[in-house]
Amino acid sequence: MKVGLNSASGVALVIAIAGAGLPAWGQEKASSDQSTQVEEIVVTGSNIRGSALDAALPVEVYSQADLEKQGAPTALEFAKSLTISGPTTGESYYFGGPTLVGSVNYNLRGLGADKTLVLLNGRRMNQNTANVPSMALARTEILKDGAAVIYGADATGGVVNFITRDKFVGMEAQAQYKHIKGSKGDYSVGVMGGIGEDRVNLLVSAEYEHRSRLGTLERDFSKASLNPTTGYNPAPWSTLTNLTGWQARGPLPATPSATDVGEWGPAVGGIVSDFTPASCAAVGGRYDNAFTCAYNYISYYRLVEKQDTYRLYAQLKAQITDSMKFHMDASYGRVNLPQVMGSPAQPVSRGPALATGAVNQFYVPITNPFAADFAAAHGIVGAQGFTPITYRLFGHGGNPYYSGGDGFGVADKIDNKVWRVSAGLTGDLGDLAPFAKAVGYDFALTYNDAYNYNTHADTIGYRLQEALNGFGGSNCKAVDLDPSRFGTQNAAAAGKNGCQYWNPFSTSFKGQPMLGLSNPSYVAGKENPEDLALWMFDPRAVETLSHNFTADLVFNGRSGVNLPGGEIGWALGAQYRSLANRVNVPSAFNNGSIQCEWPSNTTSANGAGSGNLSPTPTSTTSPNFRGCTPDAPGPFVLFAPTLPSQAEQSQYSLFGELQIPLFSTVDIQLAARREKFSNDLGATVYKASGKWNVWGPLTLRASYGTNYQTPPLGVTPGAITVAARTYTVAASNWLAAQFITDANLKPETAKTSNIGAIWQSRGFADDHRLRLIVDYFDIKTKDQIGQVADPNQIASLVFNGAGGTITTCDVTKQPLLARITFNSGCAVGMSGVGSFSAVSTRYGNGPGQTTKGFDFQGSYGLPLGPGDLDINVTATRVTELKTGPTTLDGVTISTGDDRLGTLNFATFAQAAPKWRANLGVNYGLGRQNFRLGVNFVSAVKDERAGVQYGEDGENWITTDFTYRLQLDGDMALTATVANIFDRDPPPAQEEFGYDPWTGNPLGRTFEIGFKKAF
Fold it and tell me: Looking at residue 947, what is its pLDDT?
């Protein structure tokens, strides 16, 4: 990260705002002193113009000229470096949601990106900021206060407002390259042109950014987990692998029933391992027991994925009359990742067996030639088939097929596009209504459109079972001869005429390809064919289309009422917003058409004389139950289907604002808003703010207001989504988590307040400049929308005995038992390791949050020798971050969490450091500029029970240096060394060995930049 300046100086201000050029290059028509211009025209947070730093509202301003002194950094680095920000998406963090890779969402105060409103030129835009035109920006304003009263919902944490350049004429081009050890580097190019020096100005820009892959084996902090010795990171290890123990089975029962013996037959002998301690270690595995050779999947992932970002922007400004202006802009952004690499196959949390759970879900008949080989090799006599204790389609050995040989995992594909068009008129009514010529108006129409495409592949369980029986492959057309059980039963046709067998045993793979390890159990010619392997997967492609339209009309003016401080100003406005969302799911496997583990038209009788049963959801206590639970889990081994959906919502609001200058030193602003929604929800919010110039250099300011957040569009009551989560009581294994949406969602609300003091004066000499700002913030949310209780916490409460064991199986004593999907039923004393496959929880209104703390900003400037020295400090100290109490099914899940200073893994790795601070030292010497920055994030403690890897964390301190040289007034060269001392991010028991939402994995980087104006 790099160091920033201006009001948050020292921040690693790396904004995808990378281009806009110094004013002298582009012939700006506004003042050439861009920092002065910024302070005069800031309007973020109010419909009444104010000043950036002495207004009643806490607004930080980052001018593009200052950011360029750092080498024109990137959006992700900028967002992650803000001291007022929380964990930020965008890194290649598969486990935090692959669809978020490459999409920078701002998360002010750590309350969630959905509570930070993003604007472009004061108008709403998509949370995905890929279409922010970095080259065309003049500055970025960040309001660190709730603003629902001004902008409507979504602004509890604050507002980020990107503001473009005004009347640019000329042409600029820029290019950057960043050298990253172990990678081909990152680079970007851009061009911008503007014409029109009189009443009409047109600006157009185009940009391209590329990130290159960086593998996990390129960094010691992620590679360190590969050696399972004392103190290692266990997070990227899984006990669900393709090296397992097998249970020999006797004859199949004539009529299947929903137990492993009732479906697959009686056990014959004990468990037979498909590995030895030596052969397990030979492929990089961890020998746990006779049926578990755990594998480390992290080598298949990447710290950074190949990523291409495209941006186009056009802006038209016209002075129609002396008092009427027209503004129109259109922006387009695309983020494309051909691969976001994941594990070679998803873990099995359930299978096609009648019994629920992960154990004994598949059956390999002795007629499978690979089963016969396994029996012969281990001296097993009399077995009619085998069931694995647990099984994963691919694990050790990787998946050499799914990603076309470009990596050995199962890659997701991400293609996100967002575009926006906004047009508006501002002016005075004098041209339209002479009697109201002193009344101003601001009218605008804004349309945002987003297209998100992603895949998230999973194994189709019943196809694997078909292949184990010898009926795998798309060309298999064998006739089913036994309707008494699911799947094709036809021994004479198995493995013939296009039907293929799957080899689930250790003889099938050569070795661990990423680590270059050989498998001593491999037998040449026993590999599984590529077409059969690919037939096992469905990409689970999902298209999400989102649209929103906003119409704004604001009138403003003076009341004619004069107070000692001046005339009362006012603003009245109305806003209409319509939102629409559509989710398209083309695959029948993934769109709910196949509700159960086996598709319709497969057969299974319910005993002699009964007809064939269709595998549809029914109660587990029903005599017709055939393994398909009432939640309709679908055919995948881990994920539930993604149901297509369509939703619309309209919102109407009226709002007003007053500026009351009580005295020349006291100014008060009052605002209120009433908003109604088409689903009969509504909210009334208000805000009061004021400033008092106590004397000369000292100004005090304060604000208090209410805010609200509506339920996300498209949230369907009763809908079930499934994701993977790690469970402490299951040895940190990844298992399924089900999120069931409440039917009675309501808006969440919040109260926000801010008290601040500003000191601006000379320093120790008349030509010195001193500025100090301190703000105290307090935000309280209520009925927060999200997961009501964390699945890991639920599991820990059920397995609450010594060593993570069950203490009761009585649901009346422990109601949360009903939320656990056991592999083989509940038993007192049962360990959480290998005994359950899923946990369900609610998605709805949960406990609120409270966060409090202080923001500090300080700068000191002075002439030094032939140049000018500026020292800037920005810091945020969070003093409180708490979550309210949580109950579920009458059980107290938590009495309230103190999240401050912890990793907060229960909230999916939302780290909450107490301190974030940045120091910037800038020295300008004519055409040269030197900048040194130090960035600090305090350590967070892992709050999970027991001793974790990186338990106490570490302070993360990085140091950056940038040199900038301006040549001949129209060209500049920049050189940056970021993270000079090559500091690794703090260790954390997460898959990559660090927290990707706070740190970055790049290490020391070298960057050069070039910019030319014509």
Answer: 86
